Amino acid sequence: MGDWIVYREPRRGNGREGYVAVARVTQIESDPSKSGFSYAYVDDFLPFDVVVSLRRGARFYERKLNEVENPSRIGAALQGRSIRTISEDEFGAIAVAGLHETLDPANAIRLELDSRHADAEVLAMVSAAPEEQERRIAQMLVNRKIRDAAFRRAVVDAYDGRCAVTRLRIINGGGKAEAQAAHIWPVAEGGPDVVQNGIALSATCHWLFDRHLISLTDDFGLLVSHNKVPSELRVLFAQQLDRIHLPVDRQLWPHPSYLGRHREAFAAA
User: Fold this and answer.
1) Which 8-state DSSP code applies to residue 184?
2) In sequence order, what are the beta bridge partners of 200?
């Protein structure tokens, strides 16, 4: 237990044909209805910033794939091998490539991985050479600051840097959006670091959302605790009661199960 896995999507079924995420296996249970099959339970799931191609340059990340005589037949060679082992260095190389945007020094300010927001240990990891990052990848994948940076990038970019409630898009000179990435189901309570569990909010709206003074309907209308939110703010929220600003890609919209959890806390607040 505790081993890391990397998720790969095949081309079949409109897949993205590449490595797309990582997670850590926490438990394996035999399938009671199918002999020889098991369920793997995972934690620390983290989608990649970008889809990582099977190839790095002219070679494949997985050394075993380089042994296939006809590279055009890689898809056929992988059929029936959806679960297979890879080495630690292969995993590290894939994961670092997948987090390219998060670890890019050019994004340090907007993702709060700069000296103003990150401690010396985090700064050392994100500024290390790729080979060193690959070696320390397991440590990086569980680091809260780095995970928050990846989550912020994914959520804020999905909402085009715009607060979902106020619809304001404010970008400073360093390219950092005023909007923040809020978790709908908090990580501390088991919530995942995925865009569908996030929403881009201004600092004030984030504060209200985290304290369950505002929430969302399943139709993405805004719910406001009228006896706790100042009337001045309620006026600003009036146009968002029917529907908030959402990502262009519907697959990135907040998931109803996460919204349901938040509404339960909103009703109890």
Assistant:
1) S
2) 181
Closest CA to 148 of 184, 178, 181: 181
Residue 260, both tokens: 């349901």
Tokens at 203, concatenated: 């600092």
Which one of 155, 174, 207 terminates a domain?
155
Query: What is the rounded CA–CA span in Å between residue 94 and residue 139?
Result: 15
Could you tell me if 166 and 202 are in contact, meaning their C-beta atoms sit under 8 angstroms apart? yes
User: Do 10 and 30 form a contact (C-beta atoms < 8 A)?
Assistant: no
| Domain total of the chain | 2
Range of the domain at 135: 4-155
Q: What is the dihedral of CA 37, 39, 45, 47, to 10 degrees?
A: 40
Give the tokens for residue 80.
């029936």
8-state DSSP, 254: P
Element (H, E) at 18: strand 18-30
Task: Rounding to the nearest 10 degrees, give the CA dihedral for residues 240, 266, 143, 201.
Answer: 10
> What type of residue is 88?
E
* First-to-final CA distance of the chain: 38
Q: Taking the model in full, what pTM does it have? A: 0.92
Residue 53 clears pLDDT 70, i.e. is over it: yes
- The span from the CA of 252 to the CA of 265, in Å, is 23
Same domain (yes/no): 99, 190: no
Whether pLDDT at 80 is above 70? no
pLDDT in tens, 196-208: 999 999 999 999 9
Residue 195: CB atoms within 10 Å = 25
